[in-house]
Amino acid sequence: MSMSLIVDILIDDLRALIRDLGQNGGLMSPSVYDTAQVLRLYPTPSEDHVWPAVNWLISQQQADGGWGNPSMPLSRAVPTLAAILALRRHCQRRSTFDGLLEAKRFLRRQLEYWEKPLPDNLPVGMELLLPYMLEEAYREEHQDDIDDVPIKLRLNIPLAPYRELIALGEHKRSLIQQKKPRAGTAPVYSWEAWASHADPELIDGSGGIGHSPAATAAWLFAANRNPNLRNQIAGAENYLRQASLATSESAPCIMPTAWPIPRFEQSFSLYALVTGGILDFPSIQDVLKPQIADLHQALKPRGIGFSDDFMPDGDDTAAAVAVLIAAGYPVDLAILNQFERAPHFVAYHGELQPSISLTARAVHALDLAGVDISRWWKIFIDAQKLDGSWSGDKWNTSWLYTTCHVLIALKNSPYKTAMKEAVAALQVHQHPDGGWGIINRSTTVETAYAVLALQNLREAGLLDNDDIHMLQRGYNWLCIHYRPFRMKEYQCWLNKEIYCPQRIDRAYELSAMLAVTLGELKL
């Protein structure tokens, strides 16, 4: 197939993707935790809705007995506990009973992970959610109707290994209690873990609580069909119905980890185009310009959040600022600089763990604006691992994601040795088939991250012939596994659990392929 034909196909695919950005609140993979919480706390009265959710939860259990991606062990406790508590009420088949016994053993085996110092890349709200789920398990197993829980399925989990996490959670709860959270703010996203009163003032413009299906289900449970909250309850129930449409599953009660996410989907997808250097490609301007203009009007002095009804954050703001600067829009950089908390940029003020990928994206945006970014370079160098990679990010489990964005932020720096060490890490971890992936097989989005990083370094004149061959092998893998107009789903982004924002991942895939293809045509 000729390069020009490949470009035509990719552009048609990209045009369709750009047109759809933000539609219906965005697309997101289904969530074990949120689905289990809705099933447990506020299931629909229809059996036709309940059992598809039960069956889906059962189908998501891993061979080792737990739920969640095995590549991120610490992210698995919350969805596993939630699934156990939900499925214990629907344990009418021997296979389900046996699966729950395996899940109980899995949690026991996991205790060793929690006895170690806590890393920075804990899932969002983990310090609140896991103690909350442990309390829920204890409460259910010590209430009057304890006979409802078979003896063999009672968890009896020792709390000592979670001591550090529980202490961190108590600290976080005290910070939340010091000031009353408002609707559409970060603490409300984990409302279920720190509140029990159904305050109607916490309902945001989505109709739900904190843009979270789990928090909304917990709020509805607390509301207990209070007639004084009739309108708010109806709105929250409608929120759950709409949220279920955002996943790749078609059954009600199967929920995403967050919804709606239109600005997150829009800003990050367009930022992927920036990293690929294709934002100004002529054939996409008619569909791209309305999206960028819409993003421009949505960026406020306080920044931008993952929806217009949720508080601004540093990550979405950095992506939006980078896109607008690259598109030639004037942007007041004070909007981005307000998220700097030296030596890092933060997503939310008061967060306890930094994010190297967020800082890299913010620094890249400032670089695009012509700002001297040299004072941030050492932060990246100090965070580099011995193997040359950057990992341990709080928003994504894949070191390829973090390494890609740091290399883009560093490509104009004098730290050539550090970049060569990162390229060496990519060389070592490239699979025999040419792709990359942290789970011992190649995945589309992680291969796209690696290809984008290498293409950026190639354009900066930092690759030798062997490196270019590595890039070509990765590009060939993407071409072989590319399916026009069909999005793949691999979960490596971090929230309450690991998830996949399908349109964003697709934007990275198409940007990587187009960046290399167009680069080859220029040679």
TrEMBL record:
Cross-referenced SUPFAM superfamilies: Terpenoid cyclases/Protein prenyltransferases
Gene3D superfamilies hit by this protein: 1.50.10.160, 1.50.10.20
Domain Squalene cyclase C-terminal, residue spans: 375-455
Record protein name field: (+)-kolavenyl diphosphate synthase
Organism the protein comes from: Herpetosiphon gulosus
Lineage: Bacteria, Bacillati, Chloroflexota, Chloroflexia, Herpetosiphonales
